């Protein structure tokens, strides 16, 4: 009984998720079916001999009827294809934007982590103040140079190409970075975010790089 209830719950959740993700397509399909049904109903009420006349026309003018039906079907297919292509393009744009914003969050968090580690490593008691400041200055410059180099990938080469595939963009904006100690920073650093929103927009980042 518990297994059956769990299975039913999972299926209902999947159905709900499918309808939530494709509600605009479902709405368009329902409106189309309603329009077709309403048109047929109106024809049968106002033109009772419509079906008989259609059979007679099909018998007398088969090529004309077939051509008309084929034309309507072709126009409908082209319309559906155009709507599908527009939806696909919007999804692609959102996916591209998500990849780029995720990369921006990653390099910003890497910069923040690098600056924190530089502070903990070089500004510690027990060393002379001049040595501390010199080593800290070098570490900060290294972090900033790495950040600028990573950020420029967004606005040069494959990063700004409209023809790059999602796989190429994911490979170009790799979520990993070598640490100064030889280790690697990976996608787990994104868990430091406290909000689902992006930390910085592309426009703001571009403005920051020009200063």
From TrEMBL:
<protein>
    <submittedName>
        <fullName>Putative conserved plasma membrane protein</fullName>
    </submittedName>
</protein>
<keyword id="KW-1133">Transmembrane helix</keyword>
<feature type="transmembrane region" description="Helical">
    <location>
        <begin position="26"/>
        <end position="45"/>
    </location>
</feature>
<keyword id="KW-0812">Transmembrane</keyword>
<keyword id="KW-0472">Membrane</keyword>
<feature type="transmembrane region" description="Helical">
    <location>
        <begin position="65"/>
        <end position="84"/>
    </location>
</feature>
């Amino acid at each position: 009984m518990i297994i059956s209830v769990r299975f039913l719950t999972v299926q209902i959740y999947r159905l709900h998720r499918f309808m939530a993700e494709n509600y605009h397509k479902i709405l368009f399909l329902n409106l189309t079916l309603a329009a077709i049904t309403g048109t047929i109903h109106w024809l049968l009420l106002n033109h009772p001999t419509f079906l008989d006349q259609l059979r007679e026309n099909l018998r007398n003018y088969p090529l004309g009827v077939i051509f008309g039906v084929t034309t309507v079907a072709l126009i409908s297919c082209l319309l559906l294809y155009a709507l599908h292509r527009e939806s696909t393009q919007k999804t692609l744009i959102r996916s591209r934007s998500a990849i780029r914003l995720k990369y921006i969050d990653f390099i910003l968090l890497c910069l923040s982590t690098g600056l924190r580690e530089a502070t903990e490593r070089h500004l510690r008691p027990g060393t002379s103040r001049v040595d501390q400041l010199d080593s800290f200055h070098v570490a900060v410059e290294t972090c900033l140079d790495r950040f600028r180099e990573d950020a420029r990938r967004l606005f040069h080469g494959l990063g700004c190409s409209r023809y790059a595939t999602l796989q190429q963009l994911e490979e170009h904006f790799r979520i990993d970075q070598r640490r100064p100690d030889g280790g690697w920073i990976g996608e787990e650093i994104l868990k430091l975010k406290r909000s689902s929103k992006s930390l910085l927009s592309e426009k703001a980042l571009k403005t920051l790089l020009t200063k």
